[in-house]
Amino acid sequence: MTAYIPTVLTIAGTDPSGGAGISADLKTFSALGAFGTAVITAVVTQNTRGVAGIHQLDGETVAGQLNNLLDDVHVDAVKIGMLGTVEVIESVAAVLRERAPAPVVLDPVMVAKSGHRLLAPDAVAAMREQLIPLVDLITPNLPEAADLLGVGEATSVCDMARQANALADLASGVLLKGGHLSGADSTDLLVVDGRVTEFDAPRVVTRNTHGTGCTLSSAIAALRPQRDSWVVAVREAKEYLTGALRAADDLSIGSGHGPVHHFWRMWDDPHT
Ligand SMILES: Nc1ncnc2c1ncn2[C@@H]1O[C@H](COP(=O)(O)OP(=O)(O)OP(=O)(O)O)[C@@H](O)[C@H]1O
Ligand SMILES: Cc1ncc(CO)c(N)n1
């Protein structure tokens, strides 16, 4: 029997140090049995210590790459990461509106772990009003959720539940990530079709947390075409990420927040 290998597209920015953005996305797709394709939105000068500069592509160049790819290649799922500007958000929204390649997971990337802005402040409203209504699942972290809702950041899982439900009025599906809280578990909340599911994973003590958000959203996009529901795809994506965080200590990349390790499953799985 021939294996089913979904083709998954990432629309995101670059990271030369290999931990976040397009690099994290493509590695995740491969590790989870999907074929990865990529449209670049911005060339980011960054390493594990932080972001030193951004060369933003214009909307026409991003839409051109997208249309050219979709004219030729059928994609089974899309992950959207860093977009950068109102212009790029509007271009991607126009292509999604016209061509509707589903399912689409949007990681509403706003600020890098180092604190550097990756989304223009005036682009938050465009993301909320023009892009979010078109996608199937958004995966904000706590500061992103607060920005999208115009409220203060959640400081407890109870706050997270309130904000996840409020975000569900804006989006078809919401996975609110609690990586920025402290506590023994790292808790995320999924709201799909009015049902809330809590995912708890043991918090891994490591400095190698660069690109956790990119990895999680890419894992969900890679798994969704291979699984029957968002709940199952999210559960397995989170298990994948926890394994990749644990295995990150096998790596020694850079002197800042190092990347997670994507190929742990191949080494640990006796069937491979
Ligand atoms: N130390 C940790 N141990 C286990 N899971 C974690 C840890 N840190 C984050 N996570 C999980 O990683 C995922 C990403 O969460 P986080 O809130 O860090 O996203 P993010 O801020 O968007 O990441 P990024 O640094 O890529 O921008 C979530 O599933 C979260 O629960
Ligand atoms: C390109 C890119 N996307 C997302 C993030 C967030 O981790 C990053 N640092 N760089």
Automatic annotation (TrEMBL):
Its EC number is 2.7.1.49, 2.7.4.7. Keywords: ATP-binding, Kinase, Nucleotide-binding, Thiamine biosynthesis, Transferase. Pathway: Cofactor biosynthesis; thiamine diphosphate biosynthesis; 4-amino-2-methyl-5-diphosphomethylpyrimidine from 5-amino-1-(5-phospho-D-ribosyl)imidazole: step 3/3. It is an enzyme of class 2 (transferase). It catalyses: 4-amino-2-methyl-5-(phosphooxymethyl)pyrimidine + ATP = 4-amino-2-methyl-5-(diphosphooxymethyl)pyrimidine + ADP; 4-amino-5-hydroxymethyl-2-methylpyrimidine + ATP = 4-amino-2-methyl-5-(phosphooxymethyl)pyrimidine + ADP + H(+). It holds the Pfam family Phos_pyr_kin. GO terms for cellular component: cytosol. One of its GO terms (molecular function) is ATP binding. Residues 15-261 form the Pyridoxamine kinase/Phosphomethylpyrimidine kinase domain. InterPro entries: HMP/HMP-P_kinase_dom, PM/HMP-P_kinase-1, Ribokinase-like. One of its GO terms (biological process) is thiamine diphosphate biosynthetic process. Catalyzes the phosphorylation of hydroxymethylpyrimidine phosphate (HMP-P) to HMP-PP, and of HMP to HMP-P. This is Hydroxymethylpyrimidine/phosphomethylpyrimidine kinase.
